[in-house]
Amino acid sequence: MSFSNLTRRGLIKTSAVAGAGLALPTYLRADGHSGFTNAPTGSTVTLGFNVPQTGPYAEEGLDELRAQELAVQHLNGEGDGGMMNTFSSKALKGNGILGKKVEFVTGDTQTKSDAARASAKAMIEKDGAIMINGGSSSGVAVAVQGLCQEAGVIFMAGLTHSNDTTGKDKKANGFRHFFNGYMSAAALAPVLKNAYGSDRRAYHLTADYTWGWTQQESIAAATEAMGWETVNNVLTPLASTDFSSYIAPVLNSGADVLVLNHYGGNMVNSLTNAIQFDLLNKEVNGKKFEIVVPLYSELMAAGAGKNVQGVIGSMNWNWQLQDEGSKAFVKSFGEKYGRPPSNSAHTCYVQTLLYADACERAGTFNPCGVVEALEDFEFDGLGNGPVLYRGDDHQCFKDVLVMKGKENPSNEYDTLEIVEVTPRAQVEYAPDHPMFAGGELGKCNPGA
Amino acid sequence: MDAIILQFLNGLDKGSAYALIALGLTLIFGTLGVVNFAHGAIFMIGAFCSVTLQRILTLSSETLSETEKDFLGNPLKIKTPYVESWFGPEVGASIIDWAVPLAILLAIPVMLFVGFVMERGLIKHFYKRPHADQILVTFGLAIVLQEVIKYFYGANPIPTPAPSAFVGSFDFGPLLGLDSSLAYPYWRLVYFGFSALIIGAVFAFLQFTTFGMVVRAGMADRETVGLLGIDIDRRFTIMFGIAAAVAGLAGVMYAPINSPNYHMGMDFLVLSFVVVVVGGMGSLPGAVLAGFMLGILESLASMNEIKNILPGIDQIIIYVVAIIILLTRPRGLMGRKGVMEE
Amino acid sequence: MLGLKKHDTQLLIIVICLALFAPFLLNPFPADSAMAQFNAGYPDLMQRFAIFGIFAIGFNLLFGLTGYLSFGHAAFLGIGSYSAVWMFKLLGYNIIPGMILSVIVSAFFALLIGYISLRRSGIYFSILTLAFAQMLFAIAYSDLIGRFVGTPITNGETGLQVYNSDPQFFHSAAKPDIPHLFGQKMQSTYTLDVGAWSFDFNFGYYFCALVLIGMFYLAIRIFRSPFGLMLRAVKSNQQRMNYTGLNTKPYTLAVFVISGMYAGLAGGLMASMDPLSGAERMQWTASGEVVLMTILGGAGTLIGPVLGAGFIKYFENIFAKINDNVLHSWFSFLPDGIENFMVTLVHPFVGKGWHLTLGLLFMMVVIFLPGGLVQGAEKIGATFRRKDGKSDDAEAKAAKQRNPAAE
Q1: Which residues, including other chains, have CB under 8 Å from residue B65's CB and lie 6 or more apart?
Q2: What start and end residues bound the annotated signal peptide (chain B) (predicted)?
Q3: Is B93 exposed, middle or buried (0-12, 13-18, 19+ CB in 10 A)?
Q4: Which chains contact A through at least 3 pairs of Cβ atoms less than 8 Å apart?
Q5: Is residue A375 part of a domain?
Q6: CA-based angle B144:C157:C74, to the nearest 5?
Q7: Which of A319, B37, B90, B173 could form a disulfide with B182 if both were Cys (CB 3.0 to 4.6 A apart)?
Q8: Is residue A434 included in any domain, yes or no?
Q9: What is the ipTM of this complex?
């Protein structure tokens, strides 16, 4: 509703304007004549960056936004070009996308699927965004992905780690560069076996929502395959802030490893609580007690402080990687913002570049052309080694990093260290793997 | 058995936080008749007193390292806290280590000040206004306070460790003659003791001082006390400050249990209202009792044995209990008739 | 007209005009101008204005008339959404069955929750409704029912969506694959370009707007009916009512159920505009939001809740989108130094700081306009209108006529 109280005079004025409007020759904007939603008509193209700017994940959203801004700069030929110089595809020329200058609009997902869809819709309907990128939770990613499919724009997912995003909820218009629960598990299992042996009893605490369930399922399957036993899996409410009542029974359960399938604030608190109960200094079954956090992020590690020391987890990418792409990105990001990028920032940057590159190669912004260009696209030089965007489920396949909390961090960003880079071949799976079954991509939707 | 004892301890611990927040809320309800939705934010500010003191103590001088490089390949800046350069590395380090307990000293004046300013500057004008207006204005205030903290400290949780002397856990096992170990973190024991102390102090203050007597009289019948020529308003202002200090201290000591973040107040807000109402409006002992009771029930409900029978019970137990209590005891556990029933 | 008094007719006409001309009123700035940032006339937001308007009108029937402050009303909204999406999954995308079911199911839940909660009054009632809503939220968020049944009922935190594999009994290839009303798609939009301006006419929005007008009319009738009078009597002194030998419970329960049905209808509409139902729309923050909308607009007034709903949704959707880039483009006409200074100055209040602005506005409205936005509108109106003692507005009266705090 409008906030002005309509007066008689105002009403007459408005009707006059309306009348004049109807009398003028009219045409349908974008609809019909160009064949897809929000086809750019002028000299610019608009991308929509949908990240959490309020709520518990605001810091992560902010970092994603930094990376997205940087990507836009690089696409427009400003700055040092970052990973565009190391990217194996040379379609991007630094003159925007298909010669059109890149502009962007931002929205706040609030890490709620409703709010995320509302802000994505605002960017699509109001600002004419042709691609939506960003986000820091799987619930949001799945919700926005569905929306983009209906609206006929491309969705380049940000941080989303649930198997479902490219599993039972996959969509033709949606693409995920980030890794998933299955890959984490496949990468972690051998490292855990080496570090802690194959005769371990694991106790799982799992955040009680879709992402937590799929990750727990993946980790339990991978660790059981190498000989571990899963003693118990306790679901913890997402709204929990104090995990003491879930941690307290762990010691007397006979388990000697605690797996925390938590993310964000949940993970910071559950890990902090576990350390309070002094679990890492205990011995059970004659072995030193260990904690595993399957999905790490730099911000969580910073939030948990010293508590991460010695705890193993996995990541999609880390700024300490020494390949040319990563170095170029860290340099360009670090010089602009004075801090190393997080792995969610990296995935958003790469996704934006990949989208732009796909448009260039397809020669069109039409989502169906972009989908075709991205499907089964192989590339290198974006920080993860050779990567495949699989056409069957729109999931990227690449190396996975296994990380460990550093014992003696030398500065505030130096909280995690790379233990191992698990090669891509080890984390691959068939598109019809049971953990990913149930959904179908459907057909690409160009909208309008 | 040991599992139940452990959960009981957890319950006491959670209950202490609930009870301290609810105590302040009830004081404000009871004395001023104000529904204060900003009370959670006050708890949060308390926790950030810890963070702030830790930040102040670790203010550092920077020198460029000769050998080490930062992530961009520039010389690494090595930070030496001023406290360490003034008092020597060892004494300095232990001062920093004790930041959280020391923050109590910072928090008491800060929280009293915050309380006074809130009451004089804003709440005072809302005594005669409908509860709906009080809710709106204090909710607005809560958002503003929260956003200000977010602006300065960011949205990420900030690790605020307890002094290293309290790291680790105490084993009750041998003490109770059990075979198995029954370890409970030192700091949580400290938190419980601290809460008990504060609760005791508040009750003693209300029970044994003239000031407290007047306030209690004011809670029972404000008009009559006013007619006796006692300046009840000024005393109520002080009570508001005390209520803020109680919630603030609860926050200060809570910081090591869970890293403080800007929205932690909202996480506690709804729960603490439930606690206050279950305890009974206007009843201080009720608030404390309900706080511990709900804390313990919540902990017991998260036991695996119970969750296996009723999955998800730990998420809803507090609300189930609240409903049962409010239906069987119309005014909560110890509520008085006619308070906030309209 | 339509059995309404003159004032109410005027009010209804205002709402009808606002609703029908919203695409123009909300897009006052040319599409390419810097001010276009403040345009709110795009389909999704207009739909939200109408839907939350309905939600708030319904909430106000309960709170404004009886003074019973429900802190769990969002539960009914969520239940409505889930019911509608289930209809889409089972029957097909026509929105009519979904809307009908959402009203029925939410009425059922409102009857249940209302019957129990209304045994208490005041804050005890508020906490009971809050407790029920939080329970339902927890159940939906972790899909506790689905865990017993074995198939997702609420689909947890991801939200309930329609999949291609769903039965969709009445669905056929000829029908659209998105919510529609007998073939007319909810998202179909006709864009009218007038010079530099552009206006969106969205079918879904007009559907919501018609429902809103209907619901507003119904609310006026309830306000002015003997039933409404009885409810006001409950608000002013329930005890006295009871002493006269009158049982007030059937009246309050009836209005609680009606109010829940309004919420369910809003939820059903929400799912019809966007076929996904997430659990967080049932959380206490969502319940709190409708309380804030109503108080902000002016509790007990007819149009206030609609204004309050629009106000909050406008900030959530428009202010959150203003980023530093936009700020720089606004102030780009200034010299560099001043431009950066202005950007730094405004920066904390927009974009990721929109909560701060909202919080400040809550405080300002309640401090300076005790009767809510309606009172503000009255004040503005009064300065323009002739001084006419007789034309005392019923809305203004309602805004002023409120109970002081219980002592």
Answers
A1: B75, B76, B77, B78
A2: none
A3: middle
A4: B, C
A5: yes
A6: 55
A7: B173
A8: no
A9: 0.90
Residue whose C-alpha is closest to residue A95's, from A70, A69, A76, A74: A76
Q: Is residue B24 part of a domain?
A: yes
> Does A401 reside within a domain?
no
Which CATH number goes with the domain that contains A304? 3.40.50.2300
Residues from chain C contacting residue A142 (CB–CB below 8 Å): 158-159, 161
Computed over every residue of chain C, the mean pLDDT equals 87
Pair A128, A205 in one domain: no
- Split into its structural domains, chain B has a count of 1
Q: Closest CB to A125: pick one of C21, C43, C165.
A: C43
**Domain around B186:** 2-58+99-328
Q: Is C390 exposed, middle or buried (0-12, 13-18, 19+ CB in 10 A)?
A: exposed
Q: Which of A247, A281, A315 is the last residue of a domain?
A: A315
Of A357, A373, A394, the domain-final residue = A394
Whose CA is closest to A265, among A310, A304, A224, A293?
A304
How close is the nearest chain B Cα to the Cα of C147, in Å?
9
Shared domain check, A309 and A327: no
Number of domains, chain A: 2
Rounded to two decimals, the pTM is 0.90
Map residue B284 onto helix, strand or coil.
helix
How many whole angstroms separate alpha carbon A393 and alpha carbon A380?
20
Class of residue C77 by CB neighbours under 10 A (exposed 0-12, middle 13-18, buried 19+):
buried
Chain C, 41 to 60: residues with Cβ < 8 Å from chain A are 42-45, 48-50, 53
For residue A275, the enclosing domain spans 182-315
Amino acid of residue C161? Q
Mutate to test the interface with C, among B31, B133, B297 (most CBs of C within 10 A): B133
pLDDT digits (tens, 9 = 90+) for A102-152: 999 999 998 888 889 999 999 998 889 999 999 888 989 999 999 999 889
B222 and C128 within 8 Å at the Cβ level: the answer is no
> Chain A within 8 Å of B257 (Cβ-Cβ)?
yes
Size of interface B-C (CB pairs under 8 A): 150
Query: A390 to chain B nearest CA, in Å?
Result: 33
On whether both A371 and A385 belong to a single domain, the answer is yes
**What's the pLDDT tens digit per position in B251-293?**
999 999 999 999 899 888 888 889 999 998 888 899 999 999 9
Taking CA–CA distances from A203, the nearest residue in chain B reads: B304
Q: Is A378 helix (H, G, I), strand (E, B) or coil?
A: strand
The answer to whether residues C353 and C323 touch, using CB atoms and an 8 Å cutoff, is: no
> Does one domain contain both A389 and A372?
yes
A113 in a domain, yes or no? yes
What residues of chain A lie within 8 A of the CB of C29, using their CB?
A: none
Partners of B3 on chain A (C-beta within 8 Å) are: 248-249, 252
Type of residue numbered A328: A
Q: Indicate which CATH number applies to the domain containing B173.
A: 1.10.3470
Q: Tell whether A265 and A347 lie within a shared domain.
A: no
Do A126 and A201 lie in one domain? The reply is no
* Residue of chain A whose Cα is closest to the Cα of B254: A242
pLDDT tens figures, A38-87: 888 889 999 999 999 988 888 899 999 999 999 999 999 998 999 999 99
Which of 108-167 (C) contact B at CB < 8 A?
116, 119-124, 127-128, 130-132, 134-135, 138-139, 142, 144, 147
For residues A169 and A42, give the distance between their C-alpha atoms in angstroms, rounded to a whole number.
35
CATH class of the domain at C6-321+369-400: mainly alpha
- In contact, A107 and A120? CB cutoff 8 Å: yes
Domain shared by A174 and A210, yes or no: no
Chosen for mutation from C112, C124, C285 (greatest number of chain B CBs closer than 10 Å) is: C124
In a shared domain, residues A53 and A174: yes
Whether C200 has its CB under 8 Å from any CB of chain A: the answer is yes
Interchain contact, B159 vs A272, CB within 8 Å: yes
